[in-house]
Amino acid sequence: MIYETYRLFVRGRQRASRTRAARRTPQEGAAMAVKHPLKITDTTLRDAHQSLFATRMRFADMAPIVEKLDAVGFHSLEVWGGATFDVTHRFLQEDPWARLREIKKRAKRTPLQMLLRAQNLVGYRNYADDVCRAFCRHAVDCGMDIFRIFDALNDARNFETSFAALRQTGVHIQAAISFSVTERRIGGPVFTLDYYKQKAKEFVGLGAHSLCIKDMAGILTPEDARLLVTELRKIVDVPIQLHTHFTAGLGDLAYFHAAHAGVDVIDCSVSPFAYRSGQPAAEPLIVALEGTRRATGLPLEPLYEIADYLESIAPKYRHFLGAAKTSIIDIGVLRHQVPGGMLSNLLNQLREAEALDRLDDVFAELPHTRRDLGYPPLVTPTSQIVGAQAVMNVVAGERYKQVSQEVKDYCYGLYGRPPAPIDPAVRAKCLKGYPRGETPIDVRPADVLAPEMDKAFAAIKEFSTDLGDALTYALYPRTGLAFLRWKHGLDENPPGERAKTFDEVRREDEAIKQALAGSPPARPAPLDAAHLQTVRVVVAGEVFEVQVELPDGAAPRLVRPPTAGAPPTAAPKAAGEKSAVAAPAPPAKTAAGPGAVIAPMPGVIVRQLVQVGEMVQAGQPVVILEAMKMENALPAPIAGALQSFLKPLGATVARGETIAVIG
């Protein structure tokens, strides 16, 4: 009803605009002629569903509207990059490279655009130069036209390899400045107007064809939008684009002020996939600018059809939409400056740590952690690094008692140079015992990274020689390998999630209707005890007993659980690397005493660093636990010999579970 009312309103505004235009004299019409039309990049197929629906939109739901979006006349279609590469292979059983090629087949008119995290590419760390070059070239070969490149620290050195590789292909390179503040407005100790002007000149000097102001948290005020566009236009001679989110409710206002200041392009999405933590909607801005010198010239009619389609498929993704609040904006972001994606990560991390009641404590800790680490802008991957460390500081009850591998790498300099110096005492604490050394580097991070592509090809040589497959492995060795083994038929069960169907949506809707009407949903028939079979199943190393009801006529039979001597087929691995697949283990034993290595939070065991029987020193890392998207080295609490691992590689552990015993 709300959407239909809005559509009638927009059509009424259109008719009124056409009536006013018809009444103008030729002289008045000439005076109103469009001199600088505002262009729009559509984010519906990338950042819109990444922001609202955890990047879960499947290509099957994209395919029917790609050609329709292509025909609208947008400046570009943002369809790839960001979190899409991770989510497609990890959760959706889709090859990210195939998705890009399929979209390109359908979009023959509008340039395709992606978000590239500079030397982080589409991952969460800096990759070697050979990976960066191969990725950029392969993305061009698969159909990418515009590369929006940003670095989480605004360190221009991290642009060098991707810029050089892309210049050879002739595609459009857009450099993005990650917008951040320490106060409510531009200013303070770090993010001054001069800071942004210096970064703009630096990035354009590297050869960028356009410049983007990237406001990932949606905290750019209208006045700061006007100020930045006005001042940057004075010092750079390339088009300026503005990207923001509606999280705090400022997005439309920022765009409107930026448009009047002369911004060339803005990012929007089609209305059903707009607002909340996504971008502002394109339709109202198109209407608002009609009859002005910044009129977009884009038609609304095709957008109605696209919006209707998006409304029809949205119920399949609504369970990802945060619906705990009535408000579609989060004014809290003006206080804590946490982007929407980072906020959802924080909530998940606290939920896993059974500490949701500590959210306010984490919000209070975040500014301190960020200051300690040199005020990094809160954008992937630094948002995850800072956020996860703030959670650890709160949950552990002691600041930097537990430090992730990523924070150690960050303090060493493997992510680049932060906007402000890292606190020396914090850096020293984080780098104590760091394998690369306790003295941080000050060179370009990739200069100390060994080539990785040969290792990636070696890891998949048993089933693939494809460059895209090798890049998938290089970027995501664990989840990428699981996807590739399924893709090439080595593993039967697909990784990730099953697609939600419209039948399931209808059943949900019916259950909601019954509940609202006061009728409880129908209960399933009671189980027939004579036909129950007890079986043991193993899930991520845990053994569970479950009862299943057999069909009529089937007799109960003995089902033997897998034994420790019969592990599943091991995945191929690079030389010297331990397999991430191990035999199922018996249920965890209760281990008390000073030698127990205990999980401080829920996670997955991804590496064992010592062998059973090996002597270790107190504080020496024993096992790597992946938690909150970070790798955490768990140390030996005492010196002694490693007696046993109670959990195998790949096992999921709960907070407080014993993983290993030192004696």
Topology:
Blueprint: H1 2-23, H2 26-31, E1 39-42, H3 44-53, H4 59-72, E2 76-81, H5 84-90, H6 96-106, E3 112-116, H7 129-141, E4 146-150, H8 160-167, E5 172-178, H9 193-205, E6 210-214, H10 222-235, E7 240-243, H11 251-261, E8 265-268, H12 282-288, H13 301-313, H14 333-336, H15 340-352, H16 359-372, H17 382-396, H18 405-412, H19 424-430, H20 453-460, H21 467-475, H22 477-487, H23 502-516, E9 532-539, E10 542-549, E11 596-598, E12 603-608, E13 615-616, E14 621-627, E15 630-635, E16 640-645, E17 652-653, E18 658-662
Parallel strand pairs: 1-2, 1-8, 2-3, 3-4, 4-5, 5-6, 6-7, 7-8
Antiparallel strand pairs: 9-10, 11-18, 12-14, 12-17, 13-16, 14-15, 16-18
Major sheet characteristics: 8 strands, parallel, barrel
Mean pLDDT: 86
How widely separated are the two ends? 67 Å
Radius of gyration: 27 Å
Strand content: 5-15%
- Structure class: alpha/beta
Overall geometry:
globular
| Spatial arrangement of strands, main beta sheet | 1-2-3-4-5-6-7-8
DSSP helix count?
23
Low-confidence stretches: 17-22, 24-32, 538-543, 556-591
| Fraction of residues in helix | 25-40%
Number of strands: 18
Task: Please characterize this protein's 3D structure.
This protein is α/β, with parallel strands linked by helices. 38% of the residues lie in helices and 14% in strands. The chain is built from 23 helices and 18 strands. The strands form 4 sheets. It has an 8-stranded parallel β-barrel, surrounded by 6 helices. Strands 11-18-16-13 form a 4-stranded antiparallel β-sheet, with no helix packed on it. The chain has a 4-stranded antiparallel β-sheet with strand order 15-14-12-17. Helix 4 packs antiparallel against helix 13 (301-313). The termini are far apart. The relative contact order is 0.09. Mean pLDDT is 86; it is low at 17-22, 24-32, 538-543 and 556-591.
